[in-house]
Amino acid sequence: MPERARKIILVSHCLLNVNSKVEGICPFPGVHKELMQVLAEKDYGIIQLPCPEMTYFGISRWAHVRDQFDFPAFREHCSKLFKPVLDQIQDYRNNGYHIEGIIFVEGSPSCGLTKVTKCENWKGVNSVDSYAKLLKESTKIPGKGIFVQEVEKLLKQADYELNYYVLDERQPGLLLDKLKKDL
Fold first, then answer.
1. Quick check: 102 and 165 in contact, CB under 8 A?
2. Phi, psi (5° rounding) for residue 38?
3. CB neighbours of 98 closer than 8 A, spacing ≥ 6?
4. How far is C-alpha 50 from the chain's CA centre?
5. CA-CA distance, 155 to 11, in Å (whole number)?
6. Among 14, 27, 54, 161, which is 20 to 30 Å from 107 by CA?
7. Burial status of residue 46 (CB atoms within 10 A of its CB: 0-12, 13-18, 19 or more)
8. What angle do helix axes 33-41 and 172-182 make, rounded to 10 degrees?
9. 59-90 pLDDT, tens per residue?
């Protein structure tokens, strides 16, 4: 039997299951195959992070921007979702495993690491036409998603330092090349 590599990486939920995303905003049909291939070739075990947007608003939700998630109940939801993952991290570490880091999704209002989605006129959408117009007006601005902020807070409280990576779905090769080289 082969020896365990004892290496683990955490991955944003939607990179392993696009079905958790809002309809129509993802460039791949199921799993991000290229990312999974790189991680498998490097012998990483994967912990799939929960999706705070899906678990809070359901699969039939519409797209949101970060400002809409920046309220106490959603932040608490994000913290509650990550605490069992933090327990897993601690147990793996206590048993000699290396936790490499977390792969987030660029531009996500929850899982964006360096950019999030923003739209100044997002409040009061009252028709499909106005919703479509606002989606086109949305931009990516510097900042961190709400889930990322809560994850960082909990990791800091636990005195854990992890590497953070971000996959930009419009330019996935940037992260894939980095992972091939650095992991």
1. yes
2. -60, -45
3. 6, 7, 8
4. 9
5. 15
6. 161
7. middle
8. 0
9. 888 778 888 899 999 999 999 999 999 999 99
List the helix and strand counts (H, then E) for the chain.
Answer: 8, 6
Where is average pLDDT lowest: 32-36, 93-97, 118-122, 125-129?
A: 125-129
Ranges 55-59, 62-66, 171-175, most confident:
55-59
pTM (2 d.p.):
0.90
Instruction: Tell me the DSSP string of 67-132.
Output: HHH-SHHHHHHHHHHHHHHHHHHHHHHHTT-EEEEEEEETB-TTT-SSEEEE-TT-TT--SHHHHH
Q: Can you tell me the distance from the alpha carbon of 107 to that of 116, in angstroms, rounded to the nearest whole number?
A: 4
The 45-48 sheet, strands edge to edge:
45-48, 7-11, 98-105, 163-167
Look-up: residue for tokens 């919703």?
131
Q: What is the pLDDT of residues 145-169, one digit of tens each?
A: 999 999 999 999 999 999 999 999 8
